[in-house]
Amino acid sequence: MSGQGYYGNIAVAGADGPCACGHEHPGSEGHSPTHSHRKTPIVAYVLEGAFLCIAIILLVLGNRQGFHQIVGDLAISFIAIIAEAMPFMLLGSLVGGLIEVFVPQEWVQRSLGTRGYGAVFIGAGLGVIFPVCECAIVPVVRRLLHKGVPLSAAIAFLLGGPIVNPIVAGSTWLAYRGDWEVVITRMIGGYAIAVTVALIMHFLFRNTPVLTEAPFAETAACGCCGHDHHAAGEPHTVARIWTAVQHACDDFFDVGKFLVIGAFVAALARTAIGVDELRQLFSSPVPAIVLMMGLAIALNLCSETDAFIAAGFQGVLPHSAQMAFMVLGPMLDMKLLLMYLTLFRKRVILTLSVLTFTTVLVAMILLHYGTGGLSGGW
Amino acid sequence: MAGDREKASFFRLFQLIVVLAWILGLWFLCADVGEAPLLGKFLRPDYWWIVEMGVGILILFLISLVYCDPHNRGRRGLGLLLQMGIMIVPLLYLPAAVRSELSPDAAKKRSFSVGRFERAVKNASPGRTSRSSDPDRKAIGGDNRLPEDPSLIQLIMESSHYEGKQVTTLGKVCLDDRLPKGTFFCYRLLMICCAADASPVGVMVHYDKIDSVKNGDWVKVEGTVGLTTFQSHRAVKLVAEQVEPTSRPKDPYVWW
């Protein structure tokens, strides 16, 4: 299998390469052929370097009179988002590391890999058992993909997990003062959209490489080389726990940098965009839905807290627009788009983004006009 | 293989420095600075456990980096420098964030309108709006639910009860061209989860000597409560008799 590996039914380009993990491997056959050792593209270096330069220049400018206030506002929002999101990402990394080490690949493949479309329906509802927000879900999905979970099921979990979970249901219930109609619509809407997008992605990318080479290459998401820790037969539980922690630490660095960039962009948007001016421009339903979807992408709020922001628009924008904000945000925002770079190729991210955006838009227009919207909304 | 080990060691050294810096940064956020924990400036104070959980996980990472054998080569060269540089950026911004306070311009951009005040306040839980239980506190008509020095949120929530009454309240000044002449917004930021989602809630204050008021100042306003309409929304208005500058309160935010 030269240059072409597979995760379950997911094709990955460039599978051969040396291993640096130091584990005993029974031969190349024993390796999960999942990663390449291609170098990071120059464009990634340029973008990361550009971000670093901009961030440092702004920080230095903050000492000057004209920029002091703006940089101060930016710094507060930036640190606030990081302080809230990073611990959840760390938790997600730890869960991902434990999955990597303790969940046998055969079990995952048997449970999800052989269920066909059923895996999609299970994946979209997995958040009920693993209630993770969108910051934490990316490292978990990385590990699940590595374990052989089919792409469609992984995407269903990636999109549905941060919505269809008890914590998000609770926060939505609180924000809307016990309005079950809103809670149920959000859960069902999130689940249905996750399943729909996952199935379409399955048909579009059945035989195409979809995963980026980077995570399992020099950044070594599996740390070592993609072998199965169960197959490798590591000695005892304590040693395996530390291996899981090492994997989690790698994820913290690989995914964390995108979280940092995303949080910075979100803080910049929060500092620069005036919500009132935008809102006045969008007073009818469809533009209002589009506005709220745009805001969801720009503001990068956590799925466990975004309902409180959406609830602030009650009486100003229709419920369908508030729902669009709550459904799209956990699936697609600037921070997530950057974090997706650690999972998928750019073409796949583009398709996934367009598909998710369109599906949410259609669903919300249907909710507004087709079902007459939610009671209490307009 | 020896070369790989050296590269791995170099990579781990960088990782170790960054993880240690993050632990110190998050620990600093949880520390008490002055009278209140610094964290309250960025997150709800009752979210301390989120940050401490992060510190705990980072300590595990630190131990694994110190005691466990490297299991990969990691990044090298420019990629390594960029990765570590990006991970350090939030820590570089931390001092600027600690020194700063959200400006009135930032508040304006966060939907500064009286209509939003009403909705935000409708969503606020009365149990969390810092009603005082101080028995010495003066109350209007002997009703302890209506103190003479209500918080801005109390004032908005109980506006019909306060109408026509004389009160003293505390807030920050925002001068805005959209307001009638001689009027400013007196507001505080209502935080739901973190400072990034904080939005202003407050009242309109009419003051004859508005020229003496500076944008962004903390002020104590003494005046009579009334109701008015602004941009087709019902709004609470104070006709101020006295507006005097005051020091920043211990907790500049109010929480949902």
Radius of gyration of chain B: 24 Å
Helix vs. strand class of chain B = alpha+beta
Oligomeric status of the shown chains?
Answer: heterodimer
Helix-strand makeup class of chain A: mainly alpha
Unreliable runs of chain B, pLDDT <50, ≥5 residues?
123-135
Number of strands of chain B: 8
Give the distance, in angstroms, between the N- and C-terminal Cα atoms of chain B: 57 Å
Q: Main β-sheet of chain A: number of strands, strand sense, barrel status?
A: 3 strands, mixed
Return the string of H and E elements of chain B.
HEEHHHHHHEEEEEE
Q: How would you sum up the global shape of chain B?
A: elongated
What is the residue-mean pLDDT of chain B, rounded to a whole number?
80
What Rg of chain A do the Cα atoms give? 21 Å
> Count of helices of chain A?
16
Description:
The complex is a heterodimer of chains A (378) and B (256). Chain A is 64% helix and 3% strand. Chain A has a 3-stranded mixed β-sheet, with no helix packed on it. In chain B, helix 1 runs antiparallel to helix 2. About 5% of the residues of chain B have low confidence. In chain B, 38% of the residues lie in helices and 23% in strands. By secondary structure, chain B is an alpha+beta fold. The longest helix of chain B is centred in the N-terminal third of the chain and has 29 residues. Chain B has 7 helices and 8 strands. The radius of gyration of chain B is 24 Å and the shape is elongated. The interface between A and B is large, with 79 and 72 residues.
Summarize the structure.
The complex is a heterodimer of chains A (378) and B (256). Chain A has 378 residues and is an all-alpha fold.
Top keywords for this entry?
heterodimer, A: 378 residues, mainly alpha, three-stranded mixed sheet, 16 helices, 3 strands, 3% strand, disordered N terminus, B: 256 residues, alpha+beta, five-stranded mixed barrel, two-stranded antiparallel ribbon, 7 helices, 38% helix, 23% strand
Task: Please describe the topology of this protein.
The complex is a heterodimer of chains A (378) and B (256).
Chain A: E1 4-7, E2 10-13, H1 42-61, H2 65-102, H3 105-113, H4 117-124, H5 134-146, H6 151-160, H7 166-175, H8 180-204, E3 209-211, H9 229-232, H10 237-272, H11 275-281, H12 285-299, H13 306-311, H14 319-328, H15 334-340, H16 346-370
Parallel strand pairs in A: 2-3
Antiparallel strand pairs in A: 1-2
Helix pairs in contact in A: 2-5, 2-10, 4-6, 4-8, 5-6, 6-8, 7-8, 8-14, 8-16, 10-15, 12-14, 12-16, 14-16
Chain B: H1 2-30, E1 32-33, E2 36-37, H2 48-67, H3 77-99, H4 104-109, H5 114-123, H6 152-157, H7 159-162, E3 166-174, E4 183-191, E5 199-206, E6 218-230, E7 233-245, E8 253-255
Parallel strand pairs in B: 4-8, 5-7
Antiparallel strand pairs in B: 1-2, 3-4, 3-6, 4-5, 6-7
